[in-house]
């Protein structure tokens, strides 16, 4: 039989047969190492057949052609090397050109902002810079234009305030000078009314200076207001006295008509 099959057992002799005639026996083949290998091979084959439906087919990787033919490789001949070098140089030139163009487009508005800031530092009239887009540089240019316009408005307000302060200071000083020149020329007697008028002009100057100090405190955010009642008649009298000299020079008579004394 096949290797590894069990050997048949010996057939017993019939009972009626003579004792001296024994049934022929078949010797069992001995299990050798070759038989063990055959049995293991059969078992492995059977297991492979049973598990073949659960195992994926092996993947084959062909380095060359499946038929064994040699595929053409990459040729590094001098001609191909020159082509590769030319293509690399072209790509590099395009990259450098694009970088230079983008850098110039980015730096141009920054140069404009720098020039405008330097002109503003030198005291020139601030000018707006062009806004190129809605990117970071464009928003920076828009913020600079807003700052420049705000600074121009503040400068106009400062000039107007200086002009008003000069006018307010000039009026009492002109009155004081006029009264003193009149007294020096003998046109006015230094009587108590004369001295009182000069004192009122000096007090007016002091009020203007106090107002300037209050304005500086308001700009600094430390101004404190203390409302107090004021006599309208007294206030109008101070205003009339401050402009009395100019009114007389112009031939105008100033008269104060106020209601009964009371808080303003």
Question: Which tags fit this structure?
Answer:
mainly alpha; single chain; EC 2.7.13.3; 264 residues; 2C_sensor_his_kinase; disordered N terminus; membrane; transmembrane
Largest sheet: none
DSSP summary: helix tally = 6
Q: Percent of residues in helical segments?
A: 55-70%
| Protein structure class | mainly alpha
Shape by Cα distribution:
elongated
Q: What gap, in angstroms, lies between the N and C termini?
A: 141 Å
Number of strands: 0
- What string, H for helix and E for strand, traces the elements in order? HHHHHH
Mean model confidence by pLDDT: 75
Percent range for β-strand residues: under 5%
- Rg from Cα: 60 Å
Uncertain segments of ≥5 residues (pLDDT<50)? Answer: 1-29
Please describe what this structure looks like.
- It is built from 6 helices and no strands.
- The longest helix has 49 residues, at 136-184.
- Residues 1-29 have low confidence and may be disordered.
- Helix content is 60%, strand content 0%.
- With 264 residues, the chain is mostly helical.
- The protein starts with 32 loop residues before the first helix and ends in a 15-residue tail after the last helix.
- It has helices spanning 33-51, 78-121, 136-184, 192-220, 232-242, 244-249.
- Keywords: ATP-binding, Cell membrane, Kinase, Membrane, Nucleotide-binding, Phosphoprotein, Transferase, Transmembrane, Transmembrane helix, Two-component regulatory system.
